Amino acid sequence: MALSEQERKLLEQLEASLMAEDPKLADTLSGSAATRVHRRKAALAGLGFMVGVVTLLIGVQIHPAVSIVGFLVMLGAALLGISSWARADGSPQPSKPAGPKPTPSSGSGSDFMSRLDERWRREHGDK
């Protein structure tokens, strides 16, 4: 179903306002080229893992060296898949904070909420 001219303009305005308000979310929803590449690598790593499993099982019947190769293929595919999947999420890599880390107290619920509030303010700024 085609959109009318008015609906198309409204959609463009919504997209522009989303980009202005939260560019990180808009980029995540649009799925940048880098994200697609990392997701494709993760999918291929999954297939490589399955090939490694089959090679491992066949190697049990044929020769132990084939099983070792299958295991190494599985291991390499798993490492590649995990790293690609983490990059495809778009989540920033954790970095160490500059200041000293506060120590958690003995399980109070209000402390938990205050830490969440502090983290929110630190990441999103106090607006």
TrEMBL record:
Biased composition range(s): Pro residues: 94-103
Under the heading Pfam families, the entry gives: DUF3040
What residues form the membrane-spanning segments? 42-62, 68-86
Keywords for the protein's UniProt record, in alphabetical order: Membrane, Transmembrane, Transmembrane helix
Q: Give start-end positions of Basic and acidic residues composition bias.
A: 114-127
Segments of this protein annotated with the region Disordered: 88-127
What's the protein called, per UniProt?
DUF3040 domain-containing protein
Q: Which organism is it from?
A: Tessaracoccus defluvii
